[in-house]
Amino acid sequence: MTDTVLVTGATAGFGRAISERLVKDGYRVIGTGRRVERLDALQASLGDAFLPLALDMLDKDSLRGLPTELPEGWREVDVLINNAGLALGMDPAQSTNIDDWERMIGTNVSGMVEITHALLPGMVERNHGHVVCIGSTAGTYPYKGGNVYGASKAFVSQFMRNLRTDLLGTRVRATNLEPGLCGGSEFSNVRLGDDAKAAEVYRGTKPLLPEDIAETVAWVLGLPEHVNINRIEMMPVCQASGGLSVVRD
Ligand code: NDP
Ligand code: 8X3
């Protein structure tokens, strides 16, 4: 039986690349996001193996209703890819906008937790499933302006470790994929609200690409059922962590 995968944030970047790759690999994919016209365009190119689903990660009622609201034939979600997410701003904590912080927490933490809570019982009941989160190196390595975004990804990281523990004894797998600098998506455009500044983030680098993320997700899912990849940290060759710094008088 072909696995059904739900990919949040399929309208751009990683989520779109993951959806395209998994349909190509023979999975049935439910792709979600707010920009419905992009989901429809994806269905036009991927065909009936792709189901477009308008879903706002800040809409708790829709997330909670998912198990019963999904169309007939698509209700048994075997794999959940928690990809939808965003960063807003690069200012130091003391100069940020609290609404931006709340939106990051609402999307990256609360929305992710809600949809996982909604779909996990079905996986456990069927004793078959996999939850994959797209975390970030920002959840491990602090950097200036990373404040709440990095903290939201640290939450994802520990949530996934704890999920593994709770799922022990079931055949439901859990993986946190933690990429570093990745171009070819709208992440920096959304974060900085300025396309020229976003392009500057990648100037002179050869960043990871959404296809690299999709390749890794496809590998993690395709491993034999007894193998669980707990976490993967991946960076482009041109990136490494910065180490500690000191300010002197
Ligand atoms: P993009 O901005 O290209 O894509 C983000 C996706 O998330 C879009 O499909 C968007 O859909 C969706 N999304 C955002 N907010 C909501 C919401 N409220 N409701 C529903 N969907 C939402 O970014 P990336 O592809 O780069 O990022 C994907 C994930 O990877 C994020 O979790 C990000 O934090 C993480 N990541 C990114 C890295 C990078 O360098 N690019 C590195 C490490 C991790 P729509 O707007 O249509 O609703
Ligand atoms: C995205 C990578 O380094 O911009 O999660 O935080 S970074």
Describe this structure in words.
The chain has 249 residues and is of the alpha/beta class. The protein has one domain (4-234): NAD(P)-binding Rossmann-like Domain (Rossmann fold), CATH 3.40.50.720. It contains eight helices and seven strands. It has helices spanning 13-24, 36-46, 60-69, 98-126, 147-167, 187-192, 195-201, 210-222; strands at 4-7, 28-33, 50-54, 79-82, 129-134, 172-179, 231-234. A seven-stranded parallel β-sheet has the order 3-2-1-4-5-6-7, with helices on both faces. Strand 1 (4-7), helix 1 and strand 2 form a beta-alpha-beta unit. The longest helix is centred in the middle third of the chain and has 29 residues, at 98-126. It is globular and about 65 Å long. The mean pLDDT is 98. Bound molecules: NADPH dihydro-nicotinamide-adenine-dinucleotide phosphate and 2-hydroxyethylsulfonic acid. 2-hydroxyethylsulfonic acid is lined by residues 136-138, 146, 180-181. It comes from Acetobacter aceti NBRC 14818. It holds the Pfam family adh_short. GO terms for molecular function: oxidoreductase activity, acting on the CH-OH group of donors, NAD or NADP as acceptor. This is NAD(P)-dependent oxidoreductase. Keywords: Oxidoreductase.
